[in-house]
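Exam prep: given the inputs below (a chain plus acetyl coenzyme *A), describe the expected output before reading on.
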Amino acid sequence: MSIPQDCILRKAREEDIDGVIYVNSETLPEHYTLSFYNSVLTTNPDTFLVIDYNGRIVAYHMGRIEYGFSLKGRPLFIKKGHVISIAVLEEHRRKGLATALMQMALDQFWKNGCEISFLEVRASNEAAINIYKKNGYYIAERIRRYYNDGEDGYVMEKKLSK
Ligand code: ACO
Ligand code: ZN
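Solution:
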């Protein structure tokens, strides 16, 4: 699936952070501090991605490479690609933007040596769970009351390969 011609998928730059914060504030209840966005951008520039539509940020993917144990199989210490947050402004949904962001991020996680990718998602977030399943993630774990408001979360995981 390709994205509309007037949308550009690219790595984020410092001047995009205001636009990323705007998209996040319009779409998700989980917000982060400016210094958090800046630190992820500095430390993980390959997996902090945006969609630029006529000079405006309409979608983002914030990813971070971490070390931790694999959830499935033997508990091996591995490099993991954490999808911290992904979101698309409502008026730009169902155009393949999140899919394009995820595919570029997965490619970058793999090139940076990650063996798996993982994320947390609200158990009620059907749209997001659907897109993750479509991209090869499976539910690895359910965490009771993971979110501040008491909702359960799923940890979803995907094994990476070429
Ligand atoms: N209902 C059911 N399936 C959906 C939906 C939906 N609302 N949205 C996407 N999908 C599935 C479909 O299979 C879709 O393919 P199709 O359009 O051919 O049917 C496929 O995912 C691909 O969709 P995209 O167009 O690539 O996804 P989009 O750009 O619309 O973004 C997203 C999806 C990111 C979940 C968007 O709805 C959004 O921003 N939601 C609010 C923020 C959010 O919940 N983010 C995820 C939180 S969890 C985390 O960040 C780790
Ligand atoms: Zn997370």
